[in-house]
Specification:
Two copies of one chain form a homodimer.
Chain A lengths: L3 E8 L2 E7 L4 E4 L1 E4 L11 H6 L4 E4 L1 H6 L3 H6 L3 H5 L4 E4 L3 H7 L4 E2 L4 E4 L6 E4 L1 H11 L3 E3 L12 H20 L7 E6 L5 H13 L4 E4 L8 H14 L6 E3 L5 H9 L4 E4 L1 H6 L3 E4 L2 E4 L19 H5 L2 H7 L4 H27 L3 H12 L7 H10 L10
Parallel strand pairs in A: 4-14, 5-6, 6-10, 10-11, 11-12, 12-13, 13-14
Antiparallel strand pairs in A: 1-2, 2-3, 7-8, 8-9, 15-16
Chain lengths: 392, 364
Amino acid sequence: MALRFEVLGRFNRARAAQLTLPHFACQTPLFMPVGTQGTIKGLTTDQLEEIGCQIILGNTYHLALRPTSELIDELGGLHKFMNWPRALLTDSGGFQMVSLLHLADITEKGVTFQSPVDGKPMLLTPEESIQIQNRIGADIIMALDDVVRTTITGPRIEEAMYRTLRWVDRCIAAHKRPHEQNLFGIVQGGLDPVLRDICVRGLVDRNLPGYAIGGLAGGEDKDSFWRVVAQCTAALPEDKPRYVMGVGYPLDIVVCSALGADMYDCVYPTRTARFGTALVPEGVLKLKHNAMVNDTRPIDPTCACMVCKNYTRAYIHCLVTKDAMGSQLLSYHNLYYMLQLSRNLHSSIVEGRFPEFVCDFLQKMFPKGDVPEWVCNAMDVAGIDISSCCSS
Amino acid sequence: MALRFEVLGRFNRARAAQLTLPHFACQTPLFMPVGTQGTIKGLTTDQLEEIGCQIILGNTYHLALRPTSELIDELGGLHKFMNWPRALLTDSGGFQMVSLLHLADITEKGVTFQSPVDGKPMLLTPEESIQIQNRIGADIIMALDDVVRTTITGPRIEEAMYRTLRWVDRSHKRPHEQNLFGIVQGGLDPVLRDICVRGLVDRNLPGYAIGGLAGGEDKDSFWRVVAQCTAALPEDKPRYVMGVGYPLDIVVCSALGADMYDCVYPTRTARFGTALVPEGVLKLKHNAMVNDTRPIDPTCACMVCKNYTRAYIHCLVTKDAMGSQLLSYHNLYYMLQFPKGDVPEWVCNAMDVAGIDISSCCSS
């Protein structure tokens, strides 16, 4: 174990904590920008520090392809290579291989796939995934899991859940740097509460430093999504971090935090920036829209980021889809927005005003009171009264 | 006139000066990054201030197309629109129209071209160019000139030079807020260049540019034209060599008495993975960079050289826009920090005329 997790405040299931990792002491709930291949597209590491980024996710699959984990290791690890002094997390590589490679095939040994470099067959085993992640050197590493999409049904889900447990044992055995890197296990089991329960208990038995809730954020209906998160957070240990992989939208992060999750990652803020969309309290703002052409307001008048303090919607409108600068400025703002959301979640819980924060957040996003039913149901379970925000 | 030009130091023809413009007091010799369409590709204005940028060039042609000069005016001018508190210069639009548009045609009225937006015929006159630039609001604006490439010969060059003089008279201005510079044309012909310089000097403009170069002419002809013009232009006004350029060219032109330069080269070459270094250039795409843990330039104090290795940037270039961004940052820092073997003969000849003894640098 190479982390400390100290809860500083609570509201029912929600908690604000300090997660102390080898490279940085983070405050949770927190959002991790995705720096796929050793960079967050469009932002220098100075700028990432400026906006308060605490931990970045690197994709093992992409890094193993370019520039390779051996080179990263030779050059002193990913922190040094990409000039990021704070915390890093790497995923196992499994998800990309399944989602990106059509010829991927999963067996007990590992994931067989066709190398995108030269087409040769390759095998990613739990051992190999951990070795690669050991070379990369992130503060948190993820066990290779057998991940299936929640939109499929049948015996494959159960097979994958049990295999995930068997693979985690192989990951633990292969992990060479437990005093410097924290191996998190990932809860699988699709949308089936029985399977999820077995998986949680199996992982908890292995006494890992932290746990992720995987296999979600893949197209399942929102009602199923929150229920799986709620079930897992209820069953996972209180004193260890809980990471909902691939989440996501600000609303989802608020709901999951209310239900007791601590960590999130998603490409959404930066990817949507590259399509000209900004994140704002009301939801989204599409900078490509003609209405922006002479709008001299900042993206978000309530936002304190460098972009909102210095640039107008009109200017960014002029750039989006025509100049990479548009994507850059929107990425900067969107990440600031997500990180500010994280800070607000943490501080509102610590300061005892979490329900007020949640209501305020929902009121801005749903001014007519049309809060989606799944959110109402989730907040009910979380014990947060949002009746003031709902019209029905 | 809306500028002050005060020479603070000299060495023979070279001079260091303070050029005080409405938005910023600049120190010359200076290099202007090209912010074509209201942005320097890859850098925020915060970063531009960080690296010491004093003045940025905007291309009138591109801005008139997007987002249009009327909109810029409506929104308070280009400084406000792009959030640049320091100085701006706009060119006349003429060069792009001639270099970018195949169907451009130049007559006494102005430049006729086919609009790239809808294909309709359009006319850019000297008056229209200045009106557009008045709306954009830069500290320095350029007269529309009849520019021809130095690689062509014949009567067209003379025609263009005289037309440039006639067009400068047709340029109206906002003289108390914007400085109209005239542009010396005349190809590589010393006689034509001389007529043009004298014609522009007679018009008592706030500053002068040397145009029509940086277009493929041989280096020996290039420096001689610059030398001739700087010798004949007034001492007490800024001299701007348009489209220059390579660090070596800037050092030579400064030795010959020029003050201002602009070029897309540093940022454009960054987008091809090339960094500017004291030794010349460093190609980050090269395989030798793959595990090179040194910064681009160990003597450089910029944010990129202080934080990133060649190996890291090699990994990004041509695959991630971040590579271009970091190289653009470094290259502009490099250009803004200067001035300060195998030396080519044209440089030796130029330095001879400039009265600068570079014998210690030359092996021959």
